[in-house]
Write a structure and sequence with these properties.
The chain has about 375 residues and is of the alpha/beta class. It is about 25% helix and about 20% strand. It is built from 14 helices and 13 strands. Strands 1, 2, 3, 4, 5, 6, 7 and 8 form an 8-stranded mixed beta sheet that branches. The protein has a 3-stranded antiparallel beta sheet with strand order 12-9-13, with no helix packed on it. The protein starts with a helix and ends in a 21-residue tail after the last helix. Its EC number is 2.1.1.137.
């Protein structure tokens, strides 16, 4: 199956027009379609107090509540895709500090205008002598104004589902990220493919639901484009109104915060090189453990046996190496990190005979 084609709603010539139509179909209340509810952990602790530094109009016209902001952003170059009125952009600007940079990309001129309106005021509020934010009118599917391998972190807040060409979106994120860089974002996914007739209705897309991907299709597309091991950090059932649920009968939605590392040192399956990592416990929001994904927490100060897709966190070039140390190397390969059950549970050939009641001579050729 051509997964990219299934979800494609426009080609390069029509990206901006598609976003314009979706914006026009959206409701007046920007919070009405917010999917990243302000539940526990939806806004990182280190960012919560920084919300007070962001202008009220920016927050009141922003379309989401939660904020997909990973730790260790100081000094980083961050790209915020479909940044809207810029709330997450200005939160990220405070977290990267004056030595970092944030590029907010937004397709809607009116929303971007609100972000631009407050640029100078926000920088003064943050105490920055020079602006560390650049606001660009554009679309995520064409980031040609950003050079290859120059971005540390790409974020987006429940807007990937709006993309008219999700393969192009993923490919551009992959292109601009540095080796060991991170795509960290929150969005809505489904437990099955939404019928195309339903997802073709612009009003359904404007609800931030009609463009949602079947989560396994996202995994396949991401892996095919070079993100070998997508991880899901926080997952929650997506709240729907009765009217919204009626538009998508039988389909379950979940709001998921995703972590994808741009590393050729990872693989599409968790493999064992005998490596261990130790998290030093120094992250303010994680003094007792490091949250890698929804199933894995690494206790502070304790060695943990990990696969190649996790040990990359502590390797050169990854910003998490500031707090994570790797013990071991990749000179010896031990196979599947969980033990390859296909191999290890295979029965032996003792007692198996051929049609002449002779012991079977096993060969692979």
């Amino acid at each position: 199956m051509d997964y990219s084609a299934y979800y494609r709603k426009a080609t390069s010539e029509g990206y901006q027009a598609y976003y314009d139509v979706v914006a026009q179909a959206g409701g007046i209340d920007p919070q009405a379609t917010a999917r990243t509810r302000n539940a526990v952990d939806a806004v990182p602790g280190e960012a919560k107090d920084k919300l007070f530094n962001v202008a009220a109009e920016i927050k009141n016209t922003f379309h989401e509540f939660g904020a997909p902001l990973p730790p260790l952003l100081e000094g980083c170059t961050v790209v915020d895709l479909c940044c809207g009125s810029g709330r997450d952009t200005y939160l990220a600007a405070q977290l990267v500090g004056p030595g970092g940079r944030v590029i907010g990309v937004e397709s809607n001129e009116a929303r971007l205008g609100i972000a631009r309106k407050y640029l100078d005021k926000e920088m003064k509020q943050f105490g920055f002598a020079e602006a560390n934010v650049e606001l660009v009118h554009g679309v995520p599917e064409d980031l040609s104004f950003i050079p290859d391998d120059t971005v540390d972190v790409v974020i987006s807040n429940c807007t990937f589902n709006l993309s008219p060409d999700k393969a192009a979106y993923i490919a551009e994120v992959k292109r601009v990220l540095k080796p060991q860089g991170e795509w960290y974002f929150t969005d809505v996914f489904t437990d099955r493919r939404i019928p195309q007739a339903t997802s073709n209705i612009i009003e359904n897309v404007a609800l931030r639901l009609g463009g949602a991907l079947f989560v396994e299709d996202f995994r396949r597309m991401a892996q095919s484009l070079g993100f070998h091991d997508p991880r899901y950090v926080i997952t929650r059932q997506t709240p729907l109104t009765d009217a919204e649920a009626a538009r998508f009968p039988g389909i379950a939605f979940a709001t998921i915060t995703c972590r994808l590392l741009n590393s050729e040192l990872t693989s599409d399956h968790c493999e064992d090189y005998g490596e261990e990592i130790i998290y030093d416990g120094s992250l303010p929001d994680y003094p007792e453990f490091f949250l890698f994904d929804k199933d894995i927490k690494f206790p502070a100060g304790k060695p943990c046996h990990v696969c190649d897709n996790v040990s990359v966190l502590g390797l050169e070039g990854c910003r998490y190496a500031k707090v994570i140390t790797v013990k071991g190397n990749r000179e010896v390969h031990y196979g599947d990190i969980h033990g390859d059950q296909i191999i290890k549970t295979a029965p032996d050939w003792e007692g198996i005979v051929d049609e002449d009641d002779q012991p079977l001579m096993v060969s692979c050729c």
